[in-house]
Amino acid sequence: MGAKRFFVILFLCSAVSYVTAAHARQENEGIRRLRNPIDRLLDAKSFKNGFWGVHVVDIESGHVLYARNAGKSFVPASNTKLYTTAAALDLLGPDYRFETSLYIDGTVDDKGVLDGNLIVRGGADPTLGGHYLSDSGDWDEDIDALRIFRDWADSLRAAGIRRIAGDIIGDDDVIDDVPLGVNWSWDDETWYYSAQLGGLAFHDNVIHLYVDGRMPGMPARLTWEPLSTGYVQIINRTLTTEPGTAMKEGYLRQRGTNTIEVTTRVPPGFSELEEITVENPTRYTVYVLREALLEAGIAVAGDPVDVDALSIKPAYDTPPYRRVAVHRSAPLPEVASLINKPSQNLYADLLMKMLGVALPQEDSDLDPGSAAMGIEAAMGTFTSAGVDTSAIRLVDGSGLSRLNLIAPEMTTALLSFMWMHPDARVRDAFYDSLPVAGENGSLEHRMRQGFAAGNMRGKTGTLTFASSLSGYVRARDGRMLAFSIMSNHHTSGSGGIRRTQDAIVELLAGFE
After folding, report:
1. Each residue of 265-321: pLDDT tens digit?
2. Domain span at residue 398?
3. Residues linked to residue 262 through DSSP beta bridges, in sequence order
4. In the chain, is it the N or the C terminus that has fewer CB atoms within a 10 Å radius of its CB?
């Protein structure tokens, strides 16, 4: 090699090294400018008695931009839903749908009488008669929850059936009969977010109870949907208070029953809506179906029955069983949005259980329809994402349990995996299922201005003394960041925690 050529090469190498070093210094300085204000936010005196866990990653390069207690375990609350929907989309695929079938088990005579039973075979579809919109996550009171039952009435008429001589049976055996998740709080059982689980679900497994104030000193007027169903018994101990007084809620479903005691205090002219859970969603479904069929002009002689009350279970592949209708849910991407945008617990927990039904693990003694089996199946996705599955602890699909434990770096690994997923449909379905800052879902009223608005997509998570926010945000320089911010044991109030989370995300969105 000539001397001239050698010095040219040496000069170029030196120049490249200089540029690389300069870029590294610039990058490090940028990271310091990011880390210092985040440190100040997290070190505020109001947070001195709690714990923060934060992890921020540049997805494309894998560079960690910020970390604090990133490998420590935290109660994630509804951040658990990221794990449920990611595993379901990855393992079941975006074309997966829940399926509910309507069967008869007898003959139909020339007068239109079914000499037998009507059977609803559940597929753990959480969306049957639900009231959520997948595009926004909004709860919509005007959705016709009974449309599916009216469609079934049309199918029965098409099959020549005008009267059912037998019972209406609800078959929920597709999953186990455990109605609540592990370690759920007993005092939450009245409320919609702790609705009972089952292989046959309808109307989000709640009634909609309306309390309308009338004359001061008089009880309020109580009405409920669907169909003012006789499945529940309402005890009215309400009171209409003086004008200008504050409303005071009081609802209690007596444990193990469908007796609901209402003690709400409400001013005149004020209307309150509350979603109250029901005991035994399977029997609730067929009870309301019976009422809807009667309203549609199809007589039913028998009773609504839970399949668990039968000594002999239906044998659908044998005569005289015949399927007369089938309902398929929206595809899984829409269900994932119904889970993540409004943070719907029932939907997430039923999806996790069905993951175990669809993908039972070999050499496992777990019930295929259990949450435990679903979680075991989901570990395949978590392993692919690089999550340390020896350290993760999940017991439900929603995050309502305090026995779930997740580290922030696990969540950023999962988010990065889903962003880089080889199936673009899976990647897009997961990303699109997340609430958008300042626009919809559980983030509609957060980060409504600034760099994060309309940019960040993420999942909230809230339990008493636990708050999480994890997701994606695109920095000002164009890079996509995955982040996880978890707070446990702070007693300073959820408002300050959320403002700090939002401020951190805004710093990430403005990062260059």
Report:
1. 999 999 999 999 999 999 999 999 999 999 999 999 999 999 999 999 999 999 999
2. 35-93+332-509
3. 236, 251
4. N
